[in-house]
Amino acid sequence: MSEKYKIYPEGLFFITLTVVGWIDVFTREEYAEEIIDNLNFCIEQKGLKVYCFCIMSSHVHLIVSSVNVSLSEILRDFKSYTAKKIIASIEESPRESRKEWLLHLFEFYAKGNSHNSKYQFWQQHNHPIDLVSPKFVDEKRQYIHENPVKAKLVNEASNYIYSSANSFTRVKLEAL
After folding, report:
1. What percent of the chain has a predicted confidence (pLDDT) above 90?
2. Which of 87, 100, 140, 146 could be bridged to 14 by S-S, CB 3.0 to 4.6 A?
3. Rounded to whole angstroms, how far apart are CA atoms 72 and 66?
4. Nearest CA to 146 among 58, 74, 54?
């Protein structure tokens, strides 16, 4: 097995969590807020340390580590819980105009994976990149913060509400 994408204790990692098929789910406020709420839960209850983040329409970028708990286990639980919550929100929402289409796609992606019962929300792999130097950390932090600017969602990174570049974020961040 490749050593390239391994999580180890005490490491600092750049992680990307991607929705299957790069489906634009986080264009809806309630789904992005679910990510924020569950990041904070993992910070408060599971030992997750979040230094930097950005929620884009189909993926989430993070710079993270963990204390006394396996980061792999935290991410597994985070992905499982958020997937269930967001799919339930989609199913129950009277305002979700894309409900049938979204559920059809999540069901389609689940058929190719024996680990899922009915739906698959997240891609299986997180491809953690070990941030071994301050220069590499700064490069990834800048990449994360500039993502919404490059996507032309905002003119300045600090104006993007779902990013650690925004000083009003609700995510309980650690200092880098």
Report:
1. 86
2. 140
3. 9
4. 54
Q: Is residue 139 within 8 Å of residue 30, measured between CB atoms?
A: no
pTM above 0.90, yes or no: yes
Structural domains for the chain: 13-159 (3.30.70.1290)
Q: What is d(CA 71, CA 65) in angstroms, rounded to the nearest whole number?
A: 7
Reported residue count of the chain is 176
For 86-140, how does the pLDDT look when each residue is reduced to its tens digit (9 = 90+)?
999 999 999 999 999 999 999 999 997 777 679 999 999 888 999 989 999 999 9
Location of structure tokens 């340390």: 49
